[in-house]
């Protein structure tokens, strides 16, 4: 055989092998999963390098490897199953980022913009899609996709420091309204397409939907609070409970004849009340969702796209062009109209438009459901992907360009929390109380992007120090480091040998330039401590930075209310504003309500609180009488009672804690307490 013949034969075999591989999808589970993991790793990194959202890279990768691309992967039952889980998780996380409190502030602006950014896209979208040949139901469903939006550019606004501006508040509230309405439209259109939109459907759906929503938004937080109180010590059980909640509520949506994605969204809105934003549990949920479940869904959506249709079917370009144009126009008009009504300038209007133009989560969810029930065809899926591509690129760019022109809001709370949370020192000695102390310190440090400094001190009097003591120190610091890493918090553990606990803490605080010291307290003082002062008193006396003396009988994440109690004299103190800012920060991060109580002596005058930065609806209750009695009367389980401590003399002999905190602690052993000492 000649060399040319051998080369020709080799080329034929090679072509045959490539054709066979490309025509036969990979079915072995190991290489399938390996390929998907490779896509999850590489695609977002490549697209972020060229300044495109990673979501676009995952979708396009699904197009390439899917049945309409190279055919390497089939959209089989496994992909559909994992994609469905990812879809539910995507809507669940959208609910986790939604707060009902967003509607409390600037509610009028949120309502106006919310209805405007729903109705205008519905009207324009329905008319445009019917004009290019869609039937009424399909046109309404696609229009509902235009109405919903994803706050893809929210991190950009956060980085620019405009999160507390009126334009952001109005957009956040409007997003909640338009997304819920769009999902309800989806539910009704699906039923109409299936031929079951009858009087009996309405008679069943409306009461069922009301009961279902009430049980989800009212009952689920209470069930979750009970579960976390009983089993909150088991992190695995907490995460499993959240996942079980997602799928139970999603299945419940099917039982009341609405789409499961609506249930997943409501489950997120309900459960977010229980999980602090900076907690390890929230970090695990977001990490698992963003790195595993949601990418599966995005890849599976890409597999639905058939790029050949763009060339085989000229109408595909028309559908894609119309969808992109309508999506942009239908979001600009409400932003412009509402902005003019609110008195916003053009920069604010463009920021509102930039935030609301992105189409991703709800759009993908709705179009996937519609395609699965054959309400829309592949042309619409292709057009949706084109719309997502354009709007996901435009949204961060528009928000960044015009957001830079807005004046950043001065956030006093963030400034105060930031100064406190820069370097937080936590002495750890007792494994049973270490977790709550660390969670409080982590919450303050992470909100300021600061550093946690867990400290354990061995006393040099016990020289030579035993190997058991050294091993215990190492174990306590390792546990603290592990808890901090689970919350993605900067941590620097410190082991030290010193002559006394209080001197060791004071020296480390000075050497490491800490911004805050967090100490544990048992809730009472011995006779000797009352007379001569205990370790905590000496720590406060020696410290040149704020000290929080804390007692947590229950996990800190169970907190439902931050209760700041103060006297008229304390209200006039220079450190009182810091106490208010600390209370605001704790309430925000723990997603708890904030209550202020001013106790006035029988003959005392009431101090008017001014320039506190508190929302107008923050409850401030004023009562007359004995401080301990009045505070004890109003305390509830799962409260954090915040008191403002004072140091009259730098070297006073008696206990600094005094009678009031100990009396309250003894009468309410189930209530958490924080006594804040701010240096003069």
Automatic annotation (TrEMBL):
Keywords from the UniProt entry: Antiport, Ion transport, Membrane, Transmembrane, Transmembrane helix, Transport
Membrane-topology descriptor: Multi-pass membrane protein
InterPro entries the UniProt entry points to: Cation/H_exchanger_TM, Na+/solute_symporter_sf, Universal_stress_UspA, UspA
The keyword Metal-binding appears for this protein: no
Pfam families found in the cross-reference section: Na_H_Exchanger (PF00999), Usp (PF00582)
A single cellular component GO annotation: membrane
Locations listed in the record: Membrane
Keyword Transmembrane helix recorded: yes
Residues in UspA domain copies: 422-551
Primary residence: membrane
SUPFAM superfamilies: Adenine nucleotide alpha hydrolases-like
Domain Cation/H+ exchanger transmembrane: 39-398
GO molecular function, one term: antiporter activity
GO process annotations (BP): proton transmembrane transport
Transmembrane spans: 30-47, 54-73, 79-98, 110-130, 136-155, 167-189, 201-224, 236-252, 258-275, 287-305, 317-337, 349-373, 379-398
Family: Belongs to the monovalent cation:proton antiporter 2 (CPA2) transporter (TC 2.A.37) family.
Protein known as: Cation:proton antiporter
Species, as recorded: Atlanticothrix silvestris CENA357
């Amino acid at each position: 055989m000649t060399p040319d013949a051998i080369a020709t034969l080799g080329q034929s075999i090679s072509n045959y092998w490539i054709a066979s591989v490309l025509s036969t999808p990979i079915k072995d589970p190991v290489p399938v999963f390996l390929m998907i993991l490779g896509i999850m790793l590489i695609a977002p990194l490549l697209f972020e390098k060229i300044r495109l959202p990673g979501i676009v890279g995952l979708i396009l990768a699904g197009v390439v490897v899917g049945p309409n691309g190279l055919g390497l992967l089939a959209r089989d039952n496994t992909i559909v199953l994992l994609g469905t889980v990812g879809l539910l998780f995507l809507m669940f996380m959208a609910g986790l980022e939604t707060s009902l409190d967003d509607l409390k502030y600037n509610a009028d602006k949120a309502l106006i913009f919310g209805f405007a950014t729903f109705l205008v896209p519905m009207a324009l979208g329905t008319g445009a899609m019917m004009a290019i040949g869609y039937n009424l139901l399909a046109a309404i469903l696609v229009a509902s996709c235009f109405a919903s939006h994803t706050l893809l550019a929210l991190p950009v606004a956060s980085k620019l420091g405009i999160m507390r501006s009126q334009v952001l508040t109005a957009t956040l509230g409007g997003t909640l309204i338009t997304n819920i309405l769009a999902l309800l439209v989806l539910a009704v259109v699906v039923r109409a397409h299936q031929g079951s939109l009858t009087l009996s459907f309405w008679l069943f759906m409306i009461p069922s939907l009301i009961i279902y929503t009430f049980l989800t938004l009212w009952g689920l937080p209470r069930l979750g609070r009970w579960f976390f109180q009983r089993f909150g010590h088991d992190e695995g059980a907490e995460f499993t409970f959240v996942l079980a909640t997602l799928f139970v509520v999603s299945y419940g949506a099917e039982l009341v004849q609405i789409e499961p994605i609506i249930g997943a969204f409501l489950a997120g809105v309900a459960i977010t009340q229980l999980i602090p934003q900076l907690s390890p549990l929230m970090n695990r949920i977001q990490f698992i969702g963003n790195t595993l479940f949601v990418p599966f869904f995005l890849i599976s959506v890409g597999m639905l796209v058939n790029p050949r249709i763009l060339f085989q079917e000229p109408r595909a370009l028309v559908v894609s062009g119309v969808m992109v144009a309508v999506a942009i126009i239908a979001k600009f008009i409400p932003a412009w109209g509402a902005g003019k009504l609110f008195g916003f300038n053009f920069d604010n209007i463009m920021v509102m438009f930039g935030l609301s133009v992105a189409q991703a989560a709800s759009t993908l969810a709705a179009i996937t459901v519609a395609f699965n029930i054959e309400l829309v065809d592949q042309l619409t899926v292709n057009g949706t992907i084109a719309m997502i591509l354009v709007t996901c690129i435009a949204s961060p760019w528009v928000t960044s360009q015009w957001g830079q022109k807005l004046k950043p809001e001065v956030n006093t709370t963030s400034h105060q929390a930031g100064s406190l949370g820069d370097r937080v020192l936590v002495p750890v000695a007792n494994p049973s109380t270490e977790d709550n102390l660390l969670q409080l310190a982590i919450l303050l440090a992470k909100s300021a992007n600061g550093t946690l400094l867990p400290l354990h001190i061995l006393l040099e009097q016990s020289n030579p120090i035993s190997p058991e003591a050294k091993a215990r120190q190492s174990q306590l610091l390792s546990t603290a480091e592990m808890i901090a890493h689970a919350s993605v918090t900067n941590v620097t553990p410190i082991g030290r040998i010193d002559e006394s606990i209080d001197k060791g803490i004071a020296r480390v605080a000075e050497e490491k330039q800490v911004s805050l010291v967090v100490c544990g307290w048992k809730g009472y003082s011995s006779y000797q401590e009352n007379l001569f002062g205990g370790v905590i008193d000496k720590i406060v006396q020696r410290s040149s930075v704020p000290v929080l003396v804390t007692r947590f009988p229950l996990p800190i994440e169970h907190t439902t209310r931050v209760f700041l109690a103060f006297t008229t004299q304390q209200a006039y103190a220079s450190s009182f504003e810091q106490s208010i800012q600390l209370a605001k920060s704790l309430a925000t991060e723990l997603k708890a309500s904030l209550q202020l109580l001013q106790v006035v002596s029988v003959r005392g005058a009431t101090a008017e609180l001014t320039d506190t930065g508190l929302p107008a609806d923050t409850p401030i209750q004023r009562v007359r009488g004995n401080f301990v009695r009045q505070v004890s009367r109003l305390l509830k389980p799962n409260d954090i009672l915040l008191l403002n401590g004072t140091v009259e003399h730098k070297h006073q002999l008696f206990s600094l804690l005094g009678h009031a905190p100990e009396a309250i602690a003894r009468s309410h052993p189930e209530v958490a307490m924080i006594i804040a000492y701010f240096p003069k």
